[in-house]
Amino acid sequence: MTTAALTRPGLPRLAAVELRKSADTRAGFWLLVVIALLAAAVVVLQLVFGTDDEAHLAPLLRSTVEIMALILPVLGILLVTSEWSQRTGLTTFALVPVRERVIAAKVIGAAVLTLAALAAGLVIAAIGNAVAGGDWSLGLGELGRFTLYELIGVLGGVAFGLAFMSSALAIVMYFVIPIGWSILGETISALDKPADWLDASRPMMALIEGGMTGTEWAQLGTATAVWVGLVLAIGLVRLHRTEVT
Prior knowledge:
This protein is mainly alpha-helical. The protein has helices at 3-6, 11-24, 26-49, 57-85, 89-95, 99-132, 140-164, 167-187, 192-198, 201-209, 214-241. The protein has one domain (10-241).
């Protein structure tokens, strides 16, 4: 047996494979196209119908971030569920028997895709700002908040994809469960205080708007631990108990 056969692929190589797989599928490719088109469309609409205060780099980028945040989690879901929907799981987990390494590669791949989408959104916003002749100021803190906003959403998609292992079901549950919890928190007074810590939409809104307090950062951490960390842990347990065919 050769040394090469004994050498397992590193995480960067596995992540590169996952990135390629995300664009190889028809759904993944068109989602990437739709994300770019939506980002461009929202910038054009904001320049045409928005106020003068909205025709600057920072608000234009925020609009692209918000519209991309609706689609990017779906890409994160498909990145995981493709192993079952495309029936590639047996090959993937046979070549990489340690399943956690495959999931780690998918998480890295999802993060890279998010950063690439954010970079594309920044370019689109910059083009729109150049056309409008707006202000170019964009703080590193603001850019960091936008990045974190996108990453939390995408990693939540990865977690739901792993927990449900079905593209359609994971997509539906990703939107229905958090929205249902948000509605309960808004309509039932007894759940209002717990919702401050367990409803991700509240601190996420504060995150993208800026000026977060220490309490709001703590609430964001708690909600992320539940909707990303806990769901991902459930998915890992299910992955170990599921026979890959």
